[in-house]
């Protein structure tokens, strides 16, 4: 079997608040490493009414996400940041979250320079805000919903079919948003915790696998590399997430 050298799923970079349109990049039939682009066809959540309804429920009263926004841990962050910022009154959650978003973007853009926005947050504050985001994504594109495991199956089938077709190019790359990467990882059972993320188990989930800052960061990527070992001539797939080897499958 003539395995392609590599399949890559890449998260597009956010640039100045805008997202470049997602595209599929595939090598043409002539040449192993040349690429052409076509509009992406694998955004299944755009066509799923159930998923769109599920997304709305995340932000409704009583969801794990909204309950955590009322938790002592989160309210302490609001108080802490407000005092550190010199405000007399405790600032609204939306404002503190916006400041934190400015912190993350500025730190990403200027890696070697300290961000003034980030100076308002302690390491414990960051952990709480990270958990809030992980809670949101857990039910949006993680194992918090069985639907999330089913949505990307067509993409997964497309992704892996390149390995069984001998006429395929050596390298195929798919460019998509972080939601697609998270759904894809969910469908293959990666980063699945034994316990669901909830509003009331923040401390218990400190060592959780579902940590979106590590799974789908800026320019996050999942590579699947096909190779053959001699003398047995067995075919293998190696999964590499953000340049770190996860596993090798026979």
From TrEMBL:
The keyword Hydrolase applies. The keyword Nucleotide-binding does not apply. SUPFAM superfamilies: Phosphoglycerate mutase-like. Residues 1-21 form the signal peptide. InterPro entries: His_Pase_clade-2, His_PPase_superfam. It catalyses: 1D-myo-inositol hexakisphosphate + H2O = 1D-myo-inositol 1,2,4,5,6-pentakisphosphate + phosphate; 1D-myo-inositol 1,2,5,6-tetrakisphosphate + H2O = 1D-myo-inositol 1,2,6-trisphosphate + phosphate; (2R)-2,3-bisphosphoglycerate + H2O = (2R)-2-phosphoglycerate + phosphate; 1D-myo-inositol 1,2,4,5,6-pentakisphosphate + H2O = 1D-myo-inositol 1,2,5,6-tetrakisphosphate + phosphate. Belongs to the histidine acid phosphatase family. MINPP1 subfamily. Its EC number is 3.1.3.62, 3.1.3.80. Keywords: Hydrolase, Membrane, Signal. GO terms for cellular component: membrane. Its main location: membrane. Gene3D superfamilies: Phosphoglycerate mutase-like. One of its GO terms (molecular function) is inositol phosphate phosphatase activity. Coiled coil: none annotated. It is found in: Membrane. This is Multiple inositol polyphosphate phosphatase 1.
